[in-house]
Write a structure and sequence with these properties.
The complex is a heterodimer. Chain A is mainly α. In chain A, helix 29 runs parallel beside helix 31 and helix 32 packs parallel to helix 34. Chain A starts with a helix and ends in a 9-residue tail after the last helix. By secondary structure, chain B is α+β, with helices and mostly antiparallel strands. The chains are: A mainly alpha, B alpha+beta. At the A-B interface, helix 55 of A face loops of B. Chain A: This is MMS19 nucleotide excision repair protein.
Chain lengths: 1135, 155
Amino acid sequence: MVETNQLTQYLETFVDITRSPTEQDDSRKAIASSLDNDSLSINQLVREMELYLTTTDNVVRARGILLLAEVLDSLKAKPLTNAIVHTLVGFFSEKLADWRALRGALVGCLALMKRKDVAGVVTHIDAQAMAKSMLQNVQLQALAPHDRKLGFELLEFLLQQYSEAMSTMGNLLVYATCEAIDGEKDPQCLIVAFHLIELLAQLFPSPSGPLASDASDLFEVFGCYFPLHFTHTKDDETNIRREDLARGLSLAISSTPLFEPYAIPLLLEKLSSSLPIAKVDSLKCLKDCAMKYGVDRMKKHYGALWSALKDTFYSSTGTHLSFALESITSPGFEINEIHNEAVSLLQRLVEQDISFLGFVVEDIRINTVFDTISRYSQFRGMPDTSKLEVLVISQILSVSAKASVQSCNIIFQTFFFRLMNTLGIVEKTSNGDVVQNGNFTVSTRLYHGGLHLCIELLAASKDLTLGFEECSPTPDCAQESWCSMVKRFSVPLIQVFASAVYSSSDDSVADVYLGVKGLLTMGMFWGGSSPVSRSEFEKILVTLTSIITSKSGKTMVWELALKALVWIGSFIDRYHETDKARSYMSIVVDKLVSLACSGHCGLPYPMMLEATSEVCSTGSKYVEKMVLGLEEAFCSSLSDFYVNGNFKSVDKCSHLLGCLTNKLLPRVAEIDGLEKLLVHFAISMWNQIESCGVFSCDFNGGQEFVEAAITIMGQIVGIALVDSQNSIIQKAYRVVLSSTLAAMESIPLTFVALEDLQRDLSTRDELILSLFASIIIAASPAASIPDARSLIHLFLVSLHKGYIPAAQALGSMVNKLGRGTGGTYITSGCSLEEACDIIFQADFASGEKISSNGSGKIICGSETTLSKICLGFCGSLEHQTHAITGLAWIGKGLLMRGDERVNEIALVLVECLKSTNCSGHALHPSAMKHAADAFSILMSDSEVCLNRKFHAVIRPLYKQRFFSKIVPILESLIMNFQTPLSRKMLHVALAHVISNVPVTVILDNTKKLQPMILEGLSVLSIDSVEKETLFSLLLVLSGTLTDTKGQQSAEDNAHIIIECLVKLTSYPNLMVVRETAIQCLLALLELPHRRIYPFRIQVLQAIAKSLDDPKRRVRGEAIKCRQAWASITSTNIPF
Amino acid sequence: MTLGLINANPVVQAKKERLVRTQEDQYRDDGVDPLDIYEYVRDIRDPEHPYTLEQLSVLSEESVTVDDKLDRILIKFTPTVQHCSMATIIGLCLRAKLNERLPLHYKVDILVSPGSHADEDSVNKQLNDKERVAAAMENPNLRQLVDECIFSDEI
């Protein structure tokens, strides 16, 4: 029970208009919540509020009623007794007459209307009373917008939920609605008002009802909004869009057939306007009306409708017909929204009433086209008016034909013979029933306009069959007259199209385009009842295939024919046409695959491969055929090479591999079964390599073959399933064992042994090693690697010999091997610990291995052999650089999985950079450079190994972790005294680390990093060797300058930043550096004026030099920058 | 001074497409060419009308010639009417804009195209006289007018 005092206080607060809105809101909420938890009853509240509700003070009464209404609004789900609801309805209905307190009354009525079923609702009688009061007392148009909206909503609710009660009010309701809507301009109100009209139309559907008598008045009230003119901006808070309003209006207009006498003339008039939006709206609305008003009412407007529609088609179509490759499967001319709407209206009208088609068929303009079409043979040569005629009429006819089977028949009966006559395709037999091949004469001249019309008609009938195949499974259109007509002419039509394809007239592009498009259309008729017989279909395929295999080179016709074949192929696959698939297989696929395998055709080999792979990827059977064919071809060419020494066959092999990599591998997810085929291919590659005894690639194109082979091997393993990976690995391992590589496993890892190592592998062994490494790189962690220990040994030895793939493979292995300790699953019989053991612990001095020291923790710091070589304790310089690069790749593998050992590797690398390291002397500059670049290997994302595609184990945020560990070390080293060379190398390393870490990390540490970055920039800008590194570092700096966090620290460092950037604006070695430096200077203008003003002269002088830059882009940036800097003062440029 | 506009109803042409330079040669210098200069000046606004000099056909791509060896640039512009008193202002604008955008070693000559102006010689003389140009630019009213014309496209 709420204290009476407190309640009074709340009431006072709400009623007092001098209080702030939040206070009022709070008191309303307080009252509502105490009602909700039953500490206060409605009766009590009303009794307490009596004075406020009945006082003669207008303001207080209005507030009081509003309070009661709003409280009710928040209690919509609270059960109330019928008596209370009844009383409240009575009260609010009565108050509708009180214009000073109208807002409260409206809110209250709405709140009561919205009550849920379970909580006590307004009865029909009450609703009727409310409506009556509303209609009699409220002049909606005299109110403010928000009140008007409430009023409209109330009416909407009444009509929606109490339609029975409302229907008794008849004319009064219609009349009051007219009055309420008349002159409304607010979009929010309008959208409700349009809905009101729709509801009214549902309420009084009868042609003798109250709406019928007032229909013209009502239409006058809202018809004037059409077409909707809407200027509100998008960011309106209510978010009402023009489309919503236009849709609402259209629904209102089409809501009842009673509006028909007024609506259709209006819409037709607006359709003839030149305003595009009016046209689109009219067409949309006419479509709605056609559906709702019914055929009978629409019939009398058909004449006017047809001519308006025809005009719209003419005005919305351009005269350009594209003969480009892309448009072979599309209409070939631009289509705008008006056109689209016109198409759908025409289709709707024809679908709904076939008699509309009479207007189309009898149209004089359409009929004359067939007589004039043969006047011009070239599309290009036609005047624009004729072009327009052809395009528009082909559209109209194809849309009408597409509408239904009946309409298709009529269109074909009326026009098809004439079209054939015009094209010069004449039946010779007198009775016309029996038609045999060869009884047709094909005129030598091709009429583009006619061909286009013909293709559009055929395409329409084709689309029609496809359209209803989707709904009914057993189509049969063979009896339809259009179908028999196409059947009668199919032979000569195909002849005509084929002759167009082979045409060599002066506008042969258009000829060829229309020919191929025609053949394509004829080839895509669906199902057994297709008007094109199987032998004719095969003829089409033969024609297209012969174009592809002829010696034409990459011409337009070649590309068109290929595209057409691909479309036919995917059409067959999509609609499961087994008969046609057989023809396709035997005519197209077999032929192309056999040519691609033999390579004996006039075409260049890559083109042949392209055609084959495009055609074959339309179905999984074809792919199988192709991959098997290519496999065979690969094997025979490769053996031709190593047996007969034919260099050309190796070229062929690399093309073949390239085709597989580029065309088929990316689509492995789409084509089922491809993965297995490719794995088989990979294994037979290994078989070939196994059987070739000698291999050399010291000739033109040999290296390309090796690279192609490595790429495809890695990619295949990358996409293969684990089982297939295992089988490839097994096969490859056997080949490795049979080669001389196996001997390397016995080389002990001692200084003495390693010192003599050279790149001494034969080309064949090198190929095997690289291929095998690419397999290991791409294998997933779950794949099992046989005899991993000796493999690691092998890779380690090859690494010392300088084979980078071996190093990458080692990195990949340490990245993916199981942990070993703690019983985790070890796939390959060798754990990570053991692998690290082998890599790091081989002791050179004694030539014996030291087993891990019991604790399981392995030290791989500066004491290990690999690092000793890196630090130059022994071995040649070349040996040392190999070891450093190798160590970097191994480190990358460990880093990505988040293994701690990488820190020690990093320390070794850092040690290499010091001017005085633990070996007591500085390293050779080249070794130092390698060590600095090793950080780039560690941090950057690699394309060739250790990425997601190759199943690398990647720990989240590994870059960030490494960054936070290594940067302080590098920083402190740079601070300490170092020789210039080592200082520079440390900066290079730091630049690699900084530029590869996500920019947010940099932004968090800008204060600390910015001075380092700047110093790095000035050190690196001394010569041109590190220009790329310099650029990436500069990009990081520019990133910090454009961020608010970075700007704060930039403010402190402004003088060094500007000095550094000014120097870089004249960096001679890389244009982008200068450009970016100038952009950075421009970005600096964001800093506070007092901070940058002193540097103005300095910057302007530097930029003045850049105005004379040899590169145009730099000059452009310089102009912008100079203007901006000059304008920070009121005076002009001081030169 | 007459009130009202000197050419009240000029012929306005459409703006041409901006020149898009295709992939440039990374290793070769690209020197200043006439199109560069034209890009700089085409958007200068006419002192009388809210149109650019390009739109009013005062300038076209052919009106700029560059001699790269001697570092000389010659611009010939065509005033819209023979007696146009704005010719000097237009010339001043051209000079001011190019001064801002070109390095100092270029010598810019600005002429009205032969036969296009009633007082051709004196305008040419005025436009290429260093002292008079400098004096004109010190006149705050003129300076403001020139600045408005130059920067109209960047505001």
